[in-house]
Task: structure prediction
Amino acid sequence: MMIRLWPVFVIALLVSISCGTRVPIVTTPEYPNFVFPGIPTTYGGGLQLQDQQSAWAFLQTGDLNGAKHRFEELLEMDSNFFPAVVGLGWVDLAEGRFQEAAAQFRLALDQKEDYVSALVGHGDALYRLNDIVSALKSYRFAVKINPSLLRVERIVAELSLQVMTDQLVEARQFGEDGRLTDSEQAYREVIQGSPGSAFLYVELARIKQQQNELSEALVVIGQALALDDTYAEAFLLQGDLFESNGELELAVSAYTRANAIAPSELTADALSRARSGLRAVDLPTEYREIVTKGEITRGELAALLGVELGGLLRDAGSEVSTPIFTDTRNYWASQWVIEVARAGVMNVDGRYQFEPGRVVRRGGLAEIVAATLLLIAEFDPESGRRWRAARPRFTDLTSDHLNFDSASIAVGADVLDLSENGRFLPTRVVSGRDAADVVAKLTDLFERVR
Result:
């Protein structure tokens, strides 16, 4: 059997430790938050737990020089005794030497990466050095190993919120500055620390949308909805992504969910737009080109109304005979011309001509809008009375003007607007885009009341 022989100087040192200076008795620890660096079961050297406890007693009674001397003596006996290195780290921390403390704890962690006392001490030192992210990483590892560290657990919660807030501000700022790659990376780091926050996925999906990576954006928004399937904003963005991809049926479904959860003008407009786009897929080319035109004609306006408000118009004209036209037989939108005429929204002149090619001006548009609003008012009489009673102040229309009453109703319902100086501009030509916006407002009003 081999007998381990200790050098004479080591024996002398042990005698000095055990007999030289009396170990103080700890009544109230000077540093109650410090974590005692115990001896791991894997340690195979000659030092004992009592040796480490003796050095720690000096620290906890406030004798930092005595503690430092004891830990250094232990290291002289065994240079690989990393619990003493951690003890020195705690001494440095108590003295406010945070850089030196962090280095000591790091030395110990290089030998045993899951050594809890070193992890906590490393976190404390890094926190004092304002390296919050690294401190949080060290704290989290310590709590994962030992969940009973209540102080550390509390610090983890507080720092996680602080780090997430700082990183979120940074991620948003990167996005505003157009640094989309940096923004994406910052969002992913925030999500790593708070994987259960649906709003973070929504914001990341917006960044992916700006990068024109729609497929990946849809994956990310799907993760948000998996966390919260009542998140209206997530459904709204999902609908926008589907719409951009040309997947209009899925867009309508997503917008419908958003509008059902949190109805607003934004969700209603998006739903109306997607439904219109879906309907327009099978519509004539002439219809799809309307919004691009600088001037809209009566026939084109009839098409917009017929497609978007077909249900309202058909109900209103269900018991009315089909008018006689002499100029729309071969017109591409003749079916919708019939619908608006039967509903009384657009009139035929005494010569039985609809004049589908005549340009629409704001005065004529006001007449059509007012007639449509009165049909909608049959479903919502209170709004109808309010629209009829509205008396906007026009600077270019008097009460005896041909379009005054209709313009008052249309402006009173917020379907048509005035210029900055209060002018209605009845002779101004209406563009296809403007007409589409007006019909969208009418559709929204009808959707709300029917």
